[in-house]
Amino acid sequence: MQQSRDNTAIDVHDFGFCIGAAEILRNVSFRVAGGQYVAIVGPNGAGKTTLLKCIDRIHTGGVGRIEIFGRPVQSYRQRELARRISYVPQADGHVSPFTVEQFVMMGRYPHLSPFSTIGREDRRVLRQVLERTATAEFADRLLGTLSGGERQTVFIAAALAQGAEVLLLDEPTTFLDYRHQAAIRRLLAEVNRSGMTIVTVTHDLNHAVLESDRIVALHQGSVMFDGPAAELMKPDVLRRIYDTPFTLVEHPQSPIPVIVPPAATEDRP
């Protein structure tokens, strides 16, 4: 998908951010067009999570510019920003004492005033999101009774209930078994096809390049790569980003190669 400035959902320009004396991000620039699926990759400590939090204004400050649909992120009121961007953080093991239905309904907060009650439209959105994410079947269960994969799907459902145009996700499939990983990837692909812009942080390079329109790779807080997946999956490019060699092979169903783990070289008994 080609980017155009008129269709830019996120514009990060020459952005830097420090936590205390530590420089986490430095001169970061990239754009995300409306409707794109962009994966942010890079080694641990590269600044990926910090970048997402700055885009969603969880972290404030920094130098340079972040614009959301042509406006500086700091110019938005909180509820207004939440109607444009929703965010699913990394799973941290914390479980809220709510049912699935209650938790997903909380995603409607940008559309409710402090003194308003849940209305017909909010309930319609709730039903639609629960069906779309296949979470309706356990809507009455407490979050603590769900598996990790089911809980992660509920977190995505709550983000979708916000009705935002951009979905930010921080390692959405980490710690999940293969079945739940595949289910969440299918859900995100379907949501993206419906027109929602997706920006996801991931360590899974293979799925990133097979599912995303574009890859942004960070290295030591700076953008080391920004382009199509096929250009990323080259041994010399990957080595510059991760400071380690990679082995790539042809994918049987895609022209983009994928990474395989190196074979053990030591003698086996």
Q: Could you write a compact summary of the structure shown?
A:
This protein is of the alpha/beta class and 269 residues long.
Could you spell the SSE succession in H and E letters? Answer: EEEHEEHEHHHEHEHEEHHEE
Distance between the termini: 51 Å
Share in β-strands: 25-35%
CATH superfamily of the domain at 1-84 and 204-269: P-loop containing nucleotide triphosphate hydrolases
What is the CATH C-level name of the domain at 1-84 and 204-269? Answer: Alpha Beta
Number of E-type strands: 12
Name the average pLDDT: 92
CATH architecture of the domain at 1-84 and 204-269: 3-Layer(aba) Sandwich
Largest sheet: 6 strands, mixed
The secondary-structure class comes to alpha/beta
- The strand order across the widest sheet is 6-7-8-3-9-10
Quickly count the helices: 9
According to CATH, the fold-level topology of the domain at 1-84 and 204-269 is: Rossmann fold
Task: Write structural notes for this entry.
The protein is α/β, with parallel strands linked by helices and 269 residues long. It contains nine helices and twelve strands. The strands form three sheets. It has a six-stranded mixed beta sheet, with helices on both faces. Helix 4 (120-132) runs antiparallel to helix 5.
